[in-house]
Amino acid sequence: MNSKHRKLDILSVPNLVNLFVSEENKTLQAIKGQKTNIAKAINQIIDKIQNKGKIIYIGSGTSGRLGILDAVECNPTFNTNSFQAIIAGGQNAFLEAKEGAEDNKVAAIKDLKKLKLTKNDIVVGISASGETPYTLAAVKFAKAKRITTIGISSKPKSTLAKISSIDISPELRSELIQGSTRLKSGTAQKIILNMLSSISLIKSGKVYNDLMIDVKPTNKKLVKRAIGIISIVCNISFNKAKSLFIKSKKNTKAAIMMHFKKCSLNEALKHLNKSNYNLRKLIG
Q1: Residue 1 in this model has a pLDDT that exceeds 70
Q2: H or E element at residue 58
Q3: Is 96 a catalytic residue?
Q4: What is the mean pLDDT of residues 29-42?
Q5: Cβ of 280: how many Cβ atoms within 10 Å?
Q6: When comparing pLDDT for 176 and 146, which is higher?
Q7: Computed from CA positions of residues 178, 35, 56, 211, in that sequence, does the dihedral angle turn out positive or negative?
Q8: Is residue 170 very low, low, confident or very high in pLDDT (cuts 50, 70, 90)?
Q9: What are the Cα distances from residue 255, in Å, to 214, 220, 225, 247, 281?
Q10: DSSP alpha helices (H): ranges in the chain?
Q11: DSSP assignment string, 77-112
């Protein structure tokens, strides 16, 4: 135990805030040391996505919840189901802790089998300690099937780090609250998952410049965002962009193509299909 952390309960709130910020800065520094491995993992993910593969996050407790959080957000943001997530104990474990589930190796294999894995998939095991039985069983099962695996942990010498095809393990030696891996380890996992999904989808044509070009307009806020994107890319008024959005049947990319190619929706869709829906290839 780090002696400077033994008396957290008697520190003032401002001092605790400073201490937490200081510790999280160490998290960022540790992640920087993993840049090469992160880039390697992203390149593998891009390749699998292009071959219609699935990227499957799997973990227990906080690690599993962070996997679900990242995977779920990919659909409305990028209009893709490429990223999926499994948590030990099932989906109910997202809201209610089921600590014993992390020891169930049999359940991990059953959970993965339900997804009918192929060699175009990647299994991403997430575990702060790198020793969670559920997560290790999942990664070992995938490895036996010759499926690419990525391990995310806070322990470079852990079992997960050793058995994964690609190891991403920023070394985080202690938590401010001892054993509470939802803190620095959780921060590291969230940042790494952000990069794995966001960068791979940027490079897969799901972003144009810095715009969420494939955003799913499922509510008023996202409809407004989609129209705004059309307005920016096409350099037209919001009202004209709205008209294009309606004519395109709420397909942001198609609306943009209709503007640039001066064509119908059907013709726009044909252009997009030929380019694998990569707007950059079509309009530069």
Answers
A1: no
A2: strand 55-59
A3: no
A4: 97
A5: 12
A6: 146
A7: positive
A8: very high
A9: 12, 18, 14, 7, 16
A10: 13-32, 35-50, 61-78, 105-113, 133-144, 159-163, 184-201, 220-234, 238-247, 252-261, 265-274, 279-283
A11: HH----EEEEETT-GGGGTS--GGGGG-HHHHHHHH
**Average pLDDT of the chain to the nearest whole number:** 93
Catalytic residue among 23, 73, 131, 267: 73
Q: Is 267 a residue of the active site?
A: no
Give the pLDDT score at 87. Answer: 95
- For the segment 135-160, what is each residue's pLDDT rounded down to a tens digit? 999 999 999 999 999 999 999 999 99
Contact at 8 Å (CB) between 122 and 98? no
From 102, 131, 175, 267, active-site residue: 102
160 in Cβ contact with 136 (< 8 Å): yes
Structure tokens at 20: 């937490």
Helix, coil or strand: residue 8: helix
Nearest-angstrom CA–CA distance, 221 and 8: 42
Domains of the chain: 3-206 (3.40.50.10490), 220-283 (1.10.8.1080)
DSSP strand pairing (55-59 vs 122-126): parallel
Say yes or no to pLDDT of 216 above 60.
yes
Q: Helix, strand, or coil here: 4? A: helix
**Bridge partner list, 87:** 59
- Reported pTM: 0.90
Q: Are 268 and 260 in contact (CB under 8 A)?
A: no
Residues 6 or more apart whose CB falls under 8 angstroms from that of 104 comprise: 88, 133, 134
